[in-house]
Amino acid sequence: MRITVDIEDEILNDLVGMMGETKKSPAIAKAVTEYVKRQKAKEFGRLLRQGAFDYPVLNEELEKCDA
After folding, report:
1. For residue 59, what is the enclosing H or E element?
2. Is the pTM of the predicted complex or chain greater than 0.90?
3. pLDDT digit string (tens) for 2-61?
4. Residue 27 buriedness (CB in 10 A; 0-12 / 13-18 / 19+)
5. What is the pLDDT of residue 57?
C-alpha cells in the first residue's frame, strides 16, 4: 500500500541508518513492522502477567513429562 507521510529529513536519514537500509521506503516499512511486533509482544506479556491464559497443567506435571 502506498501512502504519503511527512517526516523531517534528519529523522528519516537517521531511520534509514538505524534500520540498516539504503532506501527510505524499506527503512520505513521495517521500522513500522518492528514497532507493531514490539507492541504485540508487550501486550502479550501484559496478558500473561494478568493471568489471561489458563493452563490446566501444573509445573510439577510438566517436569514429569520432561523426564
Report:
1. helix 59-66
2. no
3. 999 999 999 999 999 999 999 999 999 999 999 999 999 999 999 988 888 877 767 777
4. buried
5. 67
Query: Which three three-digit cell numbers place residue 27?
Result: 527503512
- Answer whether 47's CB lies under 8 Å from 53's CB: yes
Q: Three cell numbers at 51?
A: 493471568
Please state the three-class secondary structure of 10-44 as a single string: HHHHHHHHHCCCCCHHHHHHHHHHHHHHHHHHHHH
| Contacts for 15-24: CB closer than 8 Å, 24+ residues apart | none
